[in-house]
Write the structure tokens for this entry.
Amino acid sequence: MIKPAVWSVVFCLLASLLQSTLFSYIALFRAVPDLALCIVVYTAYVNGSMSGQVSGFFSGLLLDLMSAGPLGLNCFIRTLMGALAGLLKGNFFLDFFFLPMILCALATITKAAFLFILHLFLTDIVPVYSLTTPVFWVELALNCICAPFLFALLRRVKPLSNQKEKK
């Protein structure tokens, strides 16, 4: 459990740096794909709920320290995403195209829903997606487009898989 979570956090850090630097220059409607969320979803789906929660918490903590948002918001959201995606472990066959898109789309929609619920309680502190502006929809589409490629790349990284090789 420890090795996949550590590698997931390292990849989330790299993805967060990529999102905030390079992707911000090519953003559509100020929306960029949330690659770090997709990495947490992949880790949780492949290794289970606990690994997803650990990688979600620490990657969220890194995102909180890098952003100007409230401390702990990304930790909370990504820990929940890791736990929920980990519950799906072993329920579906991880194909190359459709399941990564569905998992990342569901994670993006769930992230927006959790942010909306938190916004109801903490109106001035928690930012929320507006469904009438294209930012949410573009981010959802970008996450769906990037998911198959990102999952294929992460599938090649052996330390992200907790399974032992049979000799």
